[in-house]
From TrEMBL:
This is Sulfotransferase domain-containing protein. It comes from the Eukaryota. SUPFAM superfamilies: P-loop containing nucleoside triphosphate hydrolases. It holds the Pfam family Sulfotransfer_1. It comes from Sinanodonta woodiana (Chinese pond mussel). Residues 99-233 form the Sulfotransferase domain. Gene3D superfamilies: P-loop containing nucleotide triphosphate hydrolases.
Length: 266
């Protein structure tokens, strides 16, 4: 089985509540369930997960019995929402073809922020090249899918969400076809506004989400960033990211790091 076929089959198991077919490590991954719904937390407890930090997972031999908790909840839900990390958009296209009710939100992020956090001490050019080539390929595929499946694929930049969380959330709710309640709007404001709790270790729900999204600009090494610029230029253009010509512009957080593209949600 090819890697793409494997990913396609695994994604379908999650989307259609076929949890009995998933491997044990996926089912008992605490980070996947910890930030989900209450039923997900109950599922962790059922499987013997004692605490998240430090991560302690002690699945019982009979952990499959716990699948009923999530399967019944999943099958009975009017809306199923899953976040897949780095799922190739070609696989998303196959999923869209097989299910007319499926919608896809393709989340992008400025590669400079991502690559800075993953960088080792040396200036390794191979990873930025591979990373941006993959992101560019996925973005091109998403634009094609927007034309093939009108109204079922939207492309979103993390930075736009961080700058305008409530506005973007309204558009995402509209995209999914469900109303956005006032309680949801209040929750978003609470989690993304200044003066709120900053101790969340593993999530993006930090005070002043816009500042969090642009923090890399004050931390990245100028020479390393220019290396990224060199290999990611084509992706920048496709995704609407600005290449900084002067270090002063990089450090000036009022200087825009992106511009609008017709196919990206704004």
């Amino acid at each position: 089985m090819s890697n793409l076929n494997f990913l396609h089959n695994e994604a379908k198991k999650w989307l259609y509540c076929r949890f009995d077919e998933l491997d044990t490590s996926s089912l008992t991954d605490a980070l996947s369930w910890r930030f989900g719904s209450d039923i997900g937390k109950k599922f962790l407890l059922c499987n013997g997960v004692k605490r998240l930090m430090p991560l302690v997972v002690k699945p019982k031999d009979s952990h499959r019995k716990c699948n009923n908790l999530i399967r019944d909840s999943c099958l009975g839900s009017n809306l199923r929402l899953f976040k897949f990390i780095r799922l190739p958009m070609t696989v998303a296209g196959r999923l869209l073809t097989g299910d007319s009710n499926l919608k896809v939100i393709h989340l992008l992020r400025d590669p400079r922020g991502m690559l800075m956090s993953q960088r080792r001490k040396e200036y390794n050019i191979e990873w930025p090249i591979k990373y941006c080539e993959t992101m560019l390929s996925d973005l091109k595929t998403s634009v094609q899918l927007q034309n093939i499946f009108p109204g079922r694929v939207t492309i979103l930049r993390y930075e736009d969400l961080a700058e305008n969380p409530v506005s973007i959330a309204r558009k995402l709710y509209k995209f999914t076809g469900i109303p956005m309640r006032k309680t949801v709007e209040g929750y978003i404001k609470e989690k993304t506004s200044e003066g709120k709790e900053k101790s969340c270790m593993l999530c993006t729900q930090k005070a002043n989400s816009s500042a969090t999204a642009s923090k890399w600009r004050t931390k990245i090494d100028w020479r390393y960033m220019k290396l990224i610029d060199h290999v990611c230029e084509t992706f920048y253009e496709a995704a609407g990211y600005v290449e900084f010509k002067r270090k002063a512009d990089l450090l000036n957080l009022t200087f825009p790091s992106k511009y609008e593209r017709d196919y990206i949600l704004k």
